[in-house]
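Lab meeting minutes (informal)
Scribe: AK
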Amino acid sequence: MQNKLRIIGGEWRSRVISFDDDPDLRPTPARVRETLFNWLQEDIAGSHCLDLFSGSGALGFEAASRGAKKVTLVENNPKACLKLRANVELLKATQVQVVSGDVLRYLASDAETYDLVFLDPPFAHNCTVEVCHLLEDKGWLKPHTKIYVETPASLILKGLPKNWQVLRHKTAGEVGYHLLAHKSNS
């Protein structure tokens, strides 16, 4: 199924969404999504989720399918945004909002807080740590927000905000995936 992926669990389980044919889009593999959402199963229902560099929207739609109250997808590729909006309509996903724009610019704007953040930038951008600091410094995180970060498997996450704790880490092929927790400074 080229340029299509299946939602793994929740209300839209087994529904297929499509994404733009772009070599820069690298949807999170199904087995990684399954592991991630097993890790997060107690945190999804009623949560507010921010999916940065959303691309195919796999993570955001999976969260919405599993009961997230609000999901914001941020993507700068206009064609990808058109597909994201089409998938919102297909699924009648009223809790999902698509923001077309640059992630760094978006995070520099007025913040609202989120329970879960999915961070999966194109590997070539090398901006993961910068985005993590923007999330922390600009007030996007609640006291116990969980942050999922996807990186090249060979990348060692250094320089993260000091009050972030690594909860879990795994690799799958060329992908490293990490679940972190933001701990309030108060």
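Next up, CB showed the second protein from the same session:
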Amino acid sequence: MEFQEQLADLFRELGTGREMVLSTSLNDVVTSRMMSFVIMKEKFYFQTDKTFRKYDQIMGNANVALCAANIQVEGLCREEGIPLENEEFSKAYEKNFSGSFNRYSSLKNERLFVVEPVFIQRWIYIDGAPYIETFDVKRKRHTLTPYRGI
């Protein structure tokens, strides 16, 4: 199977919305928090208030990490504007996280961000045996390595 097909399969498994931990850093200080992500076009979208610490960290260092269950994502994050001005995001966010959409999306300080993955890794089991699956998005490389623990 080609890299793009394998990556598309992974994103189909992830679905259209997922709560994930977002880790950001600036000046050797790393912080993490649970966030609600919309997943579209093989990218991860979220909204946050521009007065929050994570906003300042992302503006100073676009390298972020996401984590959910057995999946780890490293990516580059950038601001995309105001959430309600992005119709596709708004519809998906309302569908997946209606409470947060209704509470926060119309606030004047909310900003939309996108994380473009550069590296994805997850643990999977095939016939009961553990494997580490990696997607090097930049190089368009997929690997599946048996975990031997030696």
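CB comment: The domain at 3-146 is CATH 2.30.110.10 (Pnp Oxidase; Chain A).
No objections, moving on.
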